[in-house]
């Protein structure tokens, strides 16, 4: 018995005529059983082979045998499969976040709203799977349907001897993250003083000295939810900011607001543990009890000639150096990668000192804007654009491309220059270049470029 008929039976037994009448005419679900897959394929044969004559015998291909392929089916109120669509990775090997949809089919008696609903469901499923490029080859007569949903036409193609259009679903995940975290900085900070050559950098050189200062606050909601982890992260983000400028950390100042002593002790336990792990002392600060949660840390370091975030130029290679060990922080899957809390002090210090040893043209610690957004910030400060090679980006096997390019990755540095960073346990690889223009584009294995950030990220302009 199907899930749809089971629900109907329960409503009948309960005498709930109102809910029974309000049931949607069809439901869309993932086809995970042999019967549903067989019904979907039978429907495809009826439409594509017998009705339209696109194929002879059957329309099956290698995508149907790929275990990564996902099939979504639409069932009517009786549980009968009346439509379906398949989607999955385009390339062999690791999933690069490039998927294609296809074999969209609807029973002749159910055409109308089922097809568009299946397309929307496929788009939502792909985005949820961390996909950043989602395409389909669409019969020319269906181009208007897809366009109304929001798909963009790329170019004309031929499939099974018939005219089709390659269409692309616009996935704005990277742009939305950059917009939500960084786009207001330019207008907000307009007119405020800064150090020439380091506007928008992770830290700032203190004029007349070799001191570099950095300051970061932790989201109050995160402090409330996970006080010990927030304490750890308050140190992590600040020492990373110093490291991006080639500075050696010498001390920290913390400012903590907490509702009571017990809560404050939990936050400070995380600060203390990170301070000891990184070998950077807490020199002082301020603590206030009886107030909403708030945490900010200032880090001080030394560097005679800091590495700027805006020192790149068109033609320079882009390198990502990241610690790929560890896993998603519990409660923050897809958003925060934790490798640092498991590292020993020598490993942490090796990563922190990597920029200082390599002296690249430009360096940025990957921030809340994620890898792609932070690359956009480096490029913006350098007065140019950037291209990121998706297949060359070092990435943990457990992370989808969409999650990895938009998460906070623990330790990750983007640099522009001649060579990799030597960063202890971290992995370093060339994965793009700075180019003329602005914004960030992703380059895929077929050579296609897709834009994920149109122009500047922060609005602060060239450093």
Automatic annotation (TrEMBL):
CDD domains attached to this UniProt entry: NAT_SF (cd04301)
Gene3D superfamilies, sorted: 3.40.630.30, PurM-like C-terminal domain, PurM-like, N-terminal domain
Stretches assigned to the N-acetyltransferase domain: 27-172
Record PROSITE patterns: GNAT
UniProt-listed PANTHER family: THIAMINE-MONOPHOSPHATE KINASE
NCBIfam families xref list: MSMEG_0567_Cter, MSMEG_0567_GNAT
The protein, known as: MSMEG_0567/sll0787 family protein
Organism: Prauserella oleivorans
């Amino acid at each position: 018995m199907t899930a749809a008929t089971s629900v109907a039976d329960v409503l009948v037994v309960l005498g709930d005529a109102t809910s029974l009448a309000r049931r949607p005419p069809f439901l869309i679900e993932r086809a995970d059983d042999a019967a549903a897959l067989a019904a979907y394929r039978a429907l495809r044969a009826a439409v594509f082979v017998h009705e339209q004559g696109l194929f002879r015998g059957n329309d099956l291909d290698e995508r149907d045998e790929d275990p990564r392929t996902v099939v979504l089916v639409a069932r009517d109120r009786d549980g009968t499969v009346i439509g379906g669509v398949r989607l999955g990775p385009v390339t062999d090997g690791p999933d690069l976040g490039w998927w294609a949809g296809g074999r969209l089919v609807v029973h002749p008696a159910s055409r109308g709203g089922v097809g568009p609903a299946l397309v929307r469901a496929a788009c939502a499923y792909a985005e949820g799977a961390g996909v950043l490029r989602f395409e389909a080859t669409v019969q020319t007569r269906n181009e208007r349907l897809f366009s109304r949903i929001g798909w963009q036409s790329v170019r004309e193609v031929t499939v099974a001897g018939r005219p089709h259009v390659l269409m692309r679903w616009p996935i704005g995940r990277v742009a939305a993250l950059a917009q939500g975290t960084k786009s207001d900085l330019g207008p907000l900070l307009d007119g405020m003083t800064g150090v020439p050559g380091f506007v928008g950098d992770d830290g700032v050189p203190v004029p007349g000295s070799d001191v570099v200062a950095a300051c970061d606050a932790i989201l109050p909601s995160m402090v409330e939810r996970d006080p010990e982890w927030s304490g750890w992260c308050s140190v992590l983000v600040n020492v990373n900011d110093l490291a991006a400028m080639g500075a050696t950390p010498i001390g920290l100042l913390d400012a903590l607001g907490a509702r009571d002593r017990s809560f404050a002790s939990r936050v400070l336990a995380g600060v203390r543990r990170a301070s000891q792990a990184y070998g950077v002392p807490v020199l002082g600060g301020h603590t206030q009890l009886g107030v909403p949660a708030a945490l900010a840390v200032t880090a001080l370091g030394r560097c005679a000639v800091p590495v700027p975030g805006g020192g790149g130029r068109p033609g320079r290679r882009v390198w990502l150096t990241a610690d790929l060990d560890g896993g998603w922080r519990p409660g923050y899957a897809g958003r925060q990668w934790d490798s640092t809390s498991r590292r020993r002090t020598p490993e942490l210090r090796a990563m922190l000192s990597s920029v200082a040893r390599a002296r690249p043209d430009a360096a940025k610690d990957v921030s809340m804007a994620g890898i792609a957004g932070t690359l956009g910030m480096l490029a913006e400060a350098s007065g140019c654009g950037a291209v990121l090679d998706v297949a060359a980006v070092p990435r943990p096997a457990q992370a989808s491309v969409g999650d990895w390019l938009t998460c906070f990755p623990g330790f990750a540095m983007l640099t522009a220059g001649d060579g990799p960073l030597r960063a202890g346990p971290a992995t370093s690889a060339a994965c793009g270049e700075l180019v003329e223009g602005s914004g960030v584009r992703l380059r895929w294995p077929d050579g296609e470029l897709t834009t994920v950030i149109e122009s500047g990220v922060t609005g602060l302009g060239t450093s």
